[in-house]
C-alpha cells in the first residue's frame, strides 16, 4: 500500500481540481533527488515541490505555465487568467505530458502545441 498521497485529501478521494494541493489529470512526474515536478495535462501546468513532500496533500511550492495555482487556461501567456485558448507563447502550455530533468534544465513536453519547452536553472 502507498504511504502518502498528493493531490487528494486522503487515499480514497478522487476529486479533480486546480489549486496548490489539487490536480487534474496528473500525467508525468520527475525528480532531481530534491525537487519534484509534476505535469498536469488538464490544468495546463507543471507544479513543483522544492523538497520531496512528506505529508499527505502537501501543497506545491511553485507552478509553471500559469500565473498562479488557481488558473488552468491553455496557452496562458499574458498572466491575466481571463482568456482561454490564447496564442502559443513562451509561458503557457496546452496539455503538458512529459518531463525531463537533466544538466540543470527542465524540459516539458507541451503536447497540444507540438513542442518541447526548455527551462534553464
Compact summary:
This protein is mainly β. The protein contains no helices and 7 strands.
Please characterize this protein's 3D structure.
With 121 residues, the protein is an all-beta fold. 0% of the residues lie in helices and 31% in strands. The protein is globular, with a radius of gyration of 14 Å. The model has no long low-confidence stretch (mean pLDDT 95).
Shape: globular
Contiguous low-pLDDT stretches (5 residues minimum) are none
- Which structural class fits the helix and strand makeup? mainly beta
Number of strands: 7
Write the layout of secondary structure elements.
Layout (H helix, E strand, L loop, with lengths): L25 E6 L4 E5 L4 E5 L12 E3 L31 E7 L2 E6 L4 E6 L1
Antiparallel strand pairs: 1-2, 2-3, 3-4, 5-6, 6-7
Features:
single chain; 121 residues; mainly beta; 4-stranded antiparallel beta sheet; 3-stranded antiparallel beta sheet; 31% strand; globular
Amino acid at each position: 500500500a502507498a504511504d502518502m498521497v498528493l493531490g487528494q485529501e486522503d487515499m480514497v478521494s478522487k476529486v479533480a481540481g486546480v489549486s496548490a494541493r489539487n490536480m487534474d489529470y496528473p500525467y508525468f512526474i520527475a525528480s532531481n533527488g530534491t525537487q519534484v515536478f509534476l505535469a498536469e495535462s488538464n490544468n495546463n501546468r507543471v507544479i513543483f515541490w522544492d523538497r520531496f513532500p512528506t505529508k499527505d496533500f502537501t501543497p506545491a511550492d511553485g507552478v509553471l505555465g500559469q500565473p498562479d495555482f488557481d488558473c488552468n487556461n491553455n496557452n496562458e501567456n499574458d498572466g491575466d487568467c481571463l482568456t482561454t485558448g490564447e496564442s502559443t507563447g513562451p509561458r503557457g502550455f496546452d496539455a503538458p505530458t512529459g518531463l525531463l530533468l537533466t544538466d540543470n534544465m527542465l524540459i516539458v513536453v507541451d503536447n497540444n502545441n507540438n513542442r518541447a519547452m526548455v527551462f534553464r536553472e
